[in-house]
Structure prediction request, 236 residues.
Amino acid sequence: MKVRGRRECRDCGHQWSYYETGAVDCPACGSLRSVGVDDRTRHTDTPTSLDLSPHRRAVDAGPLAAAADDLKRDLRRYRTKRGFIRGGELLPLDETYLAATELLYAVDVLVRAGERTDDEELYLLSLLRGADIGDRPDVATVPASMRAARGLALTEAVDEYRREVLSWLDDNPDPDVRRVLGTVSELVKRTRALGGDVPLGESETLLAATHDVSRALRTGDEAALVTARERLARLS
Prediction:
């Protein structure tokens, strides 16, 4: 959506940035009476943070099944608030968002499975320990039984980012990037059709190509877009 991010309170005259606070109430006096004082700018990201410490304590104290619903609720809430355009600026696809998405899928799979192997337990705990600081388990540590969940999680995150980039491109046209994103979309569809059960290297390559596209747009690095095409060509 497009919003006027610079707000001015009608009651006290204080000005603030909606892009930074995500709130329409005046931080100085609390009034809800404000007006935008700049042009409308595309904006999808709401300032938010992810704190998994209560869920780590819950999992330490009892079974995962008992803590799963609250954990998944907070992960979904975080992902819903997150976006990748702030005041017209394209943001990167960051590791915290990726880790939160991966954790959400992992919890769902392992709760439904009931019993867990030691490798699955370690994978889940590693995600839970590091997701809120953007720390994802290395590919080599992902159990074979979790390959599909990780593949679907990365695909979901990539597709969310792809859609936001397409929205950003409405104001910043780039036909070459749109074509590359078309290839990303086809690979996303293929991975979903396979239920995420693709080699872990393929999921990571799709993610890396998406990072390349992001870097090309945010920094003007033309070589990054070439690299993205090469990565995607290896997957096609």
Q: What stands out?
A: The CA atoms of residues 147 and 199 lie 7 Å apart. The longest helix spans residues 147-169.
